[in-house]
Specification:
Helix content: over 70%
Order of helices and strands: HHHH
Radius of gyration: 16 Å
Strand content: under 5%
Length: about 90
């Protein structure tokens, strides 16, 4: 599927929101050093916590959307942490 320019701009706007959220998380909780102290279970717990916060009753679409941005930012943090740890292991070989 080929995305039209307006669709690409729409998604870029969402990605921008996720990156801004990630930067805010890094400011609040620390950067890579803090992230790398988390286990895989920690990351799943953080993400699950925010998925749970998204499920208000009745559904509040703004809360849902905000929490999904936070989930995406946390997923990026987890992926980056795993990549750094993998790179460290490879350097030790």
């Amino acid at each position: 599927m080929i995305l039209q320019t307006e669709d690409k701009l729409y998604y870029l706007g969402i990605y921008d929101e996720v990156i801004r959220e990630r930067l805010a998380q890094m400011e609040e909780w620390g950067g890579p050093d803090a992230d790398d102290s988390n286990t895989k279970l920690d990351w799943v717990a953080y993400i699950t916590k925010h998925v749970g916060k998204a499920l208000t009753n009745p559904v509040d679409i703004e809360v849902f959307r905000y929490q999904m941005i936070r989930v995406a930012a946390l997923a990026i943090a987890a992926i980056a942490s795993v990549d750094r740890q993998k790179k460290q292991r490879e350097c030790l070989r």
